[in-house]
Amino acid sequence: SGGSIKCESQSMTGTDSKVVTYRVAGTEQFVKECQAAGGNCKILTEQNYTIPTLSTTAPQLAVSTVRQHPDMTALWVGYDAAAGFMEKALQAASLTPGFAGSFDANALNVDTVRTDGYQKFDEALAPTWIGYGEIDSLNRLFAHQNTVDEGLKAKLLTKSSVPPSGPWGGDINVVPLYLKIWGK
C-alpha cells in the first residue's frame, strides 16, 4: 500500500465547545483507522484548554507540550481562535516543529495557510451557506415541510486551495440559489 503514514500529533482540544468534542472524536477515530491500516499514527498527548484561556494559559500549554514532544509531526488545534495564539507563543519560544492544523477558516488563519506559515491547513465550512441553510430549514419547518440536506460540505484548505486574498467564504455563491428556492 505504498508505505506507512507517520503522524505523531499533539492534540490541543478546547472541549468546552461541543463541536470541538465531535472534532476530537473524529480525530481519534481517524487515528484508530490509520493504525488498523498499518500506519504509524498516534496522538502523543492531548491537552485541553477553555475559551477564557485562549490568550493566556492555552498558548503556554502549547509551548510546554511541544517542549515535551519536540519530534512530533503535527499540532492539531480544535479551532482557529486558539491556533493563532498558540502559533505566536510557539514562534516566540522558537518552537515550530512539524506543522499545525485547525478548523473554522478565520481570516488570520487563512492568511497563515496562504503565506505558508506554521499552520498548513484549515478545515472549513462556508459561513454564508451555513446561515442560508439554517434559514431555509426554519422556513421549511414554519411551512410544515420536511427539512432537506442542504448540501453543505467541509473543505480542507491548503496553500493551493485558499483564495489569493481575504477569507474563504465558500467556493460557490449560494445566495441566488436560496433566493430562487424562496421565490425571490
Question: What key phrases describe this protein's structure?
Answer:
disordered N terminus; six-stranded mixed sheet; 184 residues; 6 helices
Layout of helices and strands, plus pairs?
Elements: E1 6-12, H1 18-36, E2 40-47, H2 57-68, E3 74-77, H3 80-92, E4 99-103, H4 107-114, E5 119-124, H5 127-142, E6 155-157, H6 175-181
Parallel strand pairs: 1-2, 1-3, 3-4, 4-5
Antiparallel strand pairs: 5-6
Give an account of the 3D structure.
With 184 residues, the protein is of the alpha/beta class. It is built from six helices and six strands; from the N terminus they run E-H-E-H-E-H-E-H-E-H-E-H. It has helices spanning 18-36, 57-68, 80-92, 107-114, 127-142, 175-181, and strands at 6-12, 40-47, 74-77, 99-103, 119-124, 155-157. It has a six-stranded mixed β-sheet with strand order 2-1-3-4-5-6, with helices on both faces. Helix 3 links the parallel strand 3 (74-77) and strand 4. Helix 2 packs across helix 3 (80-92). The longest helix has 19 residues, at 18-36. The radius of gyration is 19 Å and the shape is elongated. The termini are far apart. Residues 1-6 have low confidence and may be disordered.
- How would you write the strand order of the largest sheet? 2-1-3-4-5-6
Strand content: 15-25%
Rg over C-alpha atoms, rounded to the nearest angstrom? 19 Å
- Individual helix count: 6
Short summary:
With 184 residues, the chain is an alpha/beta fold. The protein is 41% helix and 18% strand.
